[in-house]
Amino acid sequence: MKKLRLILCLLLFVNVTYAQLPPVFGPEYVKAASASEMVKTYLTPQRIVWQSDDLGVSILNSERLLEKGNGQVAVNDENLFRFVSTTDEKPGILLDYGKEIHGGVKISMGIRESKTPLKLRLRFGESVGEAMSEIGGKQNATNEHSLRDFIIEVPWLGSVEVGETGFRFLRVDVVEANEDAPIKSIDAAFVYRDIPYLGSFESNDERLNQIWLTGAYTVHLNMQNYLWDGIKRDRLVWVGDMHPEVMTINTVFGNHEIVGKSLDLARDQHPLPQWMNGISSYSMWWLLIHKNMYDYHGNLAYLKEQEIYMIGLLDQLSTFIDKDNKEILNGNRFLDWPTSEKPEAIHAGLQAMMVLTFEAGAEMMQVLGNGAFQKKYQKVADKLKKHKPKDNTTKQAAALMALADLQDAKKANEVLTKDGVQRMSTFYGYYILEAMAKANDYEGALRVIRDYWGGMLDLGATTFWEDFDVLDKTNSGRIDELVAPTNYDIHGDFGEYCYVGYRHSLCHGWASGPTSWLSQHVLGINVMDGGNKVKIEPNLGDLKWVKGSFPTKYGILKVSHNKVANGDVETVIDAPEGLIIVK
Questions:
Q1: What range does the record give for the signal peptide (predicted)?
Q2: Each residue of 240-265: pLDDT tens digit?
């Protein structure tokens, strides 16, 4: 069964859709979460991107590295890949494993005359440029959070396994002169959770299908010991960043234990009056995530465990409102990086978040049977709504204001659609899409998904990035190619704030927003009443048909929609027993 589940994960390497699979590999395959989910498998390189010698002098039989082997060295292995170094020539090779993965590398060496270990320099990269880079410099390659550039020793007639980072590419260089080293294999050691994709999304637009899968895979890779933000950099539990990730997990993997584990870690690491991660909005996101979790899964016992902390947090937040009903939150006032230097945007966004948080708090108090606190927090939310921030022109804050009913959604949509997908962010892109849906601009939202997230795919992305400026596409090379001297390096030549150059993470779970959005708003699956009901309300936009599956507390829900000649939509629903369907 391990092999079957591995095939499911590796399908993403060859762009296979569920429609092409036997049922056992599709959403019907269900397995409960367990402590044994973490597994490791070994992947053969898919291609050689570059090698320092093409004449067969210092690099021989390089094509052997692309052959799937058994991982076992032997004394009679013949015609292995070989590194031959001299004082003047220390060869190197750059390998592509086909898709971003989390883990390290296992290198095995055959028999040779010298029994001394072979010193190799390894450079992992999320892009070709990063794997070819030096630490530091203008393009800012780093060893922060996870080592990705270091020297190892490979034993004679043996193997060594090293590394724990996010990568797709690996450059290997010989360090010393006068080496003649037969290498049997350089395989990636891929570490991931062995869990099935219970949710799915297919339509007549293959670009949207690939975006849905890429978002799902991005979050899947970040489901390590805890729910991380990134697998190369930011291997941390950032609570605000978790919100889009949790929505993707709800959509793809269902009720998974990693979410509660990560939320509890953040709660316990930040006793009140601390803000989570030192950021006031992130404490609000913690509460909003719990609201979404209950809405989807209805775990009242778990919600009850949070009640004391929630009341303390909401009471603390209520002290940061002035006489004009305006938020005056302290700590790090942060929405996302593109708005971090715009005080008016930050205030507008925080005001909206305060409204959303107190409304969510009131609803959860009602679920918990705490009527007094329900009325108290609803009264605070109503009070906050009396202050409507002005002079905001950013898409991020406009989206939050629309979602909090501080601004008419159609009016906000004028800001959201201005200049296409310029001034978007991968994190707040999800809330921009949510606000566009509230404005009933589904065709516009689909264009945003195709242009913005699809823009990353056009540049070779196999996971979605920490940040992306669509204007940077102009005259930039792909991340899976050597960059021509006349082009920009989309990874190394751009970026701001904490993501300058190669420090930029190309696998960030907060960028997965389209995955949950497409399932909720296009496939039309709206979970209600603690997961007991689902309202089916599709919005196909310019699509002809869409179908998919969704994990509910009762089992897998399957839905398909087909637009007929007169524009009506015909719907077929296959619901598990016990789930109430609302149309």
A1: 1-19
A2: 999 999 999 999 999 999 999 999 99
Backbone angles phi, psi at 541, to 5 degrees: 60, -125
What is the rounded CA–CA span in Å between residue 327 and residue 563? 46
Q: Tokens 């584990």 appear where?
A: 261
**Burial of 515 per CB tally in 10 Å (0-12, 13-18, 19+):** buried
The sheet that has 580-582: what strands, in order across it?
Answer: 525-528, 533-536, 580-582
Alpha helix segments (H runs only) across 254-342: 257-269, 280-297, 300-305, 307-318
Asked whether residue 53 is domain-assigned, the answer is: yes
Smallest CA-to-CA distance from 512 within 155, 89, 222, 161 is with 222
The answer, yes or no, to whether residue 370 has pLDDT greater than 90, is yes
Number of domains, the chain: 1
**Both tokens of residue 522?**
């296009």
What pLDDT was estimated at residue 395? 97
Instruction: Supply the DSSP symbol for 47.
Output: E
How far is Cα of residue 408 from the mean position of the Cα atoms in its chain?
30
pLDDT of residue 13: 36
Stated pTM of the model: 0.93
Does 148 fall in a domain?
yes
R_g of the chain, CA atoms, integer Å:
25
- Number of C-beta neighbours around residue 321 at 10 A: 19
Contacts of 481 (CB under 8 A, 6+ apart): 49, 128, 460
**CA 350 to chain CA centroid, nearest Å:** 24
Distances (CA, A) of 26 to 194, 195, 253, 377, 443: 14, 12, 12, 43, 29
What is the rounded end-to-end Cα distance, in angstroms, of the chain?
38
3-state SS class at 199: coil
CATH number of the domain to which 164 belongs:
2.60.120.260
Q: Is 214 exposed, middle or buried (0-12, 13-18, 19+ CB in 10 A)?
A: buried
User: Residue 461 falls within a domain, yes or no?
Assistant: no
Both tokens of 292, joined, read 């979404």
- Residue count of the chain: 583
Nearest Cα neighbor of 436 from 466, 398, 463 is: 398
Element (H, E) at 101: strand 92-109
Per-residue pLDDT of 434-455, as tens digits, reads 999 999 999 999 999 999 999 9
Handedness of CA 69, 93, 463, 192 (dihedral sign): positive
- CA distances (Å), 354 to each of 30, 284, 328, 347, 358, in order? 38, 7, 10, 10, 6
260 close to 302: Cβ distance less than 8 angstroms = yes
Residue 121 lies in a domain: yes
Q: Specify the DSSP class assigned to residue 233.
A: S
Query: What is the residue-averaged pLDDT of the chain?
Result: 93
The pair phi, psi for residue 201, each rounded to 5°, is: -150, 125
> Alpha-carbon distance 47 to 566, whole Å?
49
Other CB atoms within 10 A of residue 15 CB: 13
**Is-cis flag, bond preceding 23, omega within 30?**
no
Range of the domain at 140: 40-193
Spatial separation of the C-alpha atoms in residues 67 and 83, rounded to whole Å: 17
